[in-house]
Design brief:
The chain has 287 residues and is mainly α. It contains 14 helices and two strands. It is globular, with a radius of gyration of 22 Å.
C-alpha cells in the first residue's frame, strides 16, 4: 500500500457520516478505493483473512473485476452479456440495486432464450432461493449436472456443500446420515472445481465441516480430508488455524508424529494460544 494515498475516516463522525452514506452501504469496516477523478474503483467490506485481503488489494490495484474496470468493458462491448452480468454482480455487491436492476433488465431483453451466462446465473439464483424456501434442493443438483461454467459450478457446489453440512448437523434426526453422505459428495464435487486463488478459503471450509463430524467419517473420507487440509496448510504455511486442521486430519489417520509436527508449528506461530498447546499435549500423550 506504499503507492496508495490512505485516509482513515470515522464513519460515526459528522463529516464521516456524509462520506459513509455515499460509499459504505454494506457495513463496516470498509475500504473504498477511488480513482484520481474521485469515482469509486472498488470496495472491500468486512474483515478478511490476511491472504484474502492481500489478494483483494492486489486485484483492485491491477483494476481487475473492479467497478470502474467493468464499466469500461461494458462501454467497449455493450452487447457482451457475460460482461454485463459481471458488471451487474459488482453493482449488487456494492449495493447499487437500481443500476443492478437495469443491467438485469438489459440481459433479459437481449437473451430471451436464456442461454447466456448471465441468464443462467439468474436462473441459478432463482433455483437457489426456491430450494431454500421449499427445503428441496433436487432442482439445484439437476441444474449443476448440466452446467459447464466454472464459476457457476464453484458457486453451486459451495452452496450445496453448505446446505448439506447444515442438514447433516441440524436436520431431522432420521435424515442426518443421508445428508452426511451428500455433504461429503458435495465437498468432493466442490473441491474438483476450486481454482488456485480460492484454495485456502474453500479448503478451510471443507476441513472445518468434516472435522466437526470426524467420528462419522470413513477411511476414504479421512484421506480426502487430509488432501484438502494439506492443500490449505501448503497454501498458507504461517496460518496456525490451517496447520491445526491439517494436524487434526493427520491424527484421525493415526499419523500422530506428523500431526505433532503440525501442532508444534502452530505453537511456534502463536505461543500464547492455549488451544494449540492443549491439542499438542493431547497428541503427545496418545502417540
Amino acid at each position: 500500500m506504499k503507492d496508495v494515498l490512505c485516509y482513515s475516516i470515522d464513519a460515526e463522525s459528522k463529516a464521516g457520516r456524509v462520506i459513509a452514506k455515499d460509499h459504505v452501504a454494506q457495513g463496516l469496516p470498509a475500504m473504498v478505493f477511488l480513482e484520481p477523478d474521485g469515482s469509486v474503483r472498488d470496495k472491500i467490506v468486512g474483515f478478511l483473512p490476511a491472504e484474502d485481503f492481500i489478494a483483494e488489494v492486489q486485484r483492485i490495484k491491477k483494476n481487475e473485476f473492479t467497478l470502474g474496470g467493468l464499466r469500461k468493458q461494458v462501454a467497449a462491448n455493450p452487447m457482451d452479456l457475460a460482461i454485463r452480468w459481471n458488471f451487474a454482480q459488482k453493482l449488487e455487491q456494492l449495493g447499487d440495486k437500481k443500476a443492478y436492476d437495469r443491467e438485469i433488465e438489459f440481459i433479459h431483453k437481449n437473451d430471451p432464450d436464456g442461454t447466456s451466462i448471465g441468464s443462467r446465473s439468474l436462473r441459478f439464483a432463482a433455483l437457489r432461493k426456491t430450494a431454500v424456501d421449499d427445503m428441496d434442493f433436487q432442482d439445484v443438483y439437476d441444474f449443476l449436472e448440466k452446467e459447464k461454467d466454472a464459476d457457476l459450478l464453484l458457486n453451486g457446489w459451495f452452496f450445496l456443500f453448505q446446505v448439506e453440512s447444515y442438514l447433516a448437523d441440524k436436520g431431522e434426526e432420521g435424515t442426518r446420515q443421508s445428508h452426511r453422505k451428500l455433504q461429503i459428495s458435495a465437498a468432493r464435487a466442490l473441491w474438483s472445481h476450486v481454482p488456485e486463488k480460492r484454495t485456502l478459503r474453500v479448503a478451510n471450509a471443507i476441513s472445518a465441516a468434516l472435522l466437526n463430524a470426524s467420528d462419522k467419517l470413513e477411511a476414504g473420507d479421512v484421506a480426502f480430508l487430509i488432501e484438502v487440509s494439506g492443500a490449505a496448510a501448503r497454501r498458507a504455511p504461517k496460518d496456525a488455524n490451517s496447520l491445526a486442521m491439517y494436524g487434526a486430519s493427520l491424527f484421525l489417520a493415526e499419523r500422530t508424529q506428523e500431526a505433532i509436527a503440525q501442532l508444534k508449528r502452530c505453537v511456534e506461530l502463536a505461543p500464547k494460544n492455549a488451544r494449540w498447546r492443549d491439542q499438542l499435549a493431547r497428541y503427545q500423550r496418545e502417540k
